[in-house]
Amino acid sequence: MADFDVFARYYDLDYGDFLDDLPLYLGFAERMGSPILELACGTGRLLLTLAEAGYSMTGIDSSAAMLAAVNGKLAGPVKRRVKVFRYDMADFALGRQFKMVTIPVGGLMLAPHLEEQAAVLRRAREHLADEGLLVVDIFNPDVEEMARSAGQLIHAWTKPAENGATVSKFVSQTPDFADQLQHITFFYDETQPGGETRRTVASFTQRYLFRFEAELLLEKCGFQLENVFGSYDLDDFESDSENMIFVARRSA
């Protein structure tokens, strides 16, 4: 998997204001209770939101820089509710089980091979209590859009940074349809008030899945599907849904 330390400097600018999925996870947390495990927790966007709501949270991530950012945000009662560990999500053992395991915002696709994705799900199953719930959020692939945007440099956003600089993000992606891969590069251009600009380049590969492929993978890895939704509002999954949100339990 990619080294995500390079993303950590800009991760909160990139995803910190993404709030769409928080009510969904808060609802599932209310249903299931603590403890909760998040795989690929990044800098703690979801992890800390659930901890602030009173849930006991554990997060794992492969990036030391991401986890350092999480630890830098911990204070007061939230600090007692959060534990984070540096692990590859395809190979970890925490020695305990959880009432809910989450893999949000496409985290499963960061395992760039089918075998690695299966390993992630098996590790998740090992850490899920008998009556626990797995929630996996991935995007619904639009191969026509992937083909149209292949090789283009697309401006994603421009935002002010805390240090007074302005950061612009550009994205380029190249699909590999034979292997269901997207090779993605983020370009972060950080411009200081004096006009000096520094570019940071961060590349990774993600492997997308289609609905029934994902359902079969879950079954193969010891899960029984409870539902699949097409949005964070828990709408039914349809062909034009942007998301595929799989909710599953351990099979007998």
How would you characterize this protein structure?
With 252 residues, the protein is of the alpha/beta class. The chain folds into 2 domains: 4-141 and 209-250, Vaccinia Virus protein VP39 (Rossmann fold, 3-Layer(aba) Sandwich), CATH 3.40.50.150; 143-207, N-terminal domain of TfIIb. It is 29% helix and 35% strand. It is built from 8 helices and 11 strands. It has helices at residues 8-15, 22-32, 45-52, 64-73, 76-81, 114-126, 143-149, 211-220; strands spanning 36-39, 57-61, 82-86, 98-103, 128-139, 154-160, 166-176, 181-191, 197-207, 223-229, 243-250. A 7-stranded mixed sheet has the order 3-2-1-4-5-11-10, sandwiched between helices. Strands 6-7-8-9 form a 4-stranded antiparallel sheet. A hairpin with a 4-residue loop joins β7 (166-176) and β8. The two termini are 31 Å apart. The mean pLDDT is 96.
Give the tags.
alpha/beta; Rossmann fold; 2 domains; seven-stranded mixed beta sheet
Counted beta strands: 11
Euclidean distance between termini CA atoms: 31 Å
- Sketch the major β-sheet: 7 strands, mixed
| Beta-strand share of residues | 25-35%
Return the CATH topology of the largest domain.
Rossmann fold
H and E order: HHEHEHHEEHEHEEEEHEE
Radius of gyration of CA atoms, rounded to a whole number? 18 Å
Overall residue-averaged pLDDT value: 96
What class do helices, strands and sheet pairing give? alpha/beta
CATH class of the largest domain: Alpha Beta
pLDDT < 50 runs, ≥5 residues: none
User: Helicity level, as a percent range?
Assistant: 25-40%
Apparent shape: globular
Name the CATH superfamily assignment of the largest domain.
Vaccinia Virus protein VP39
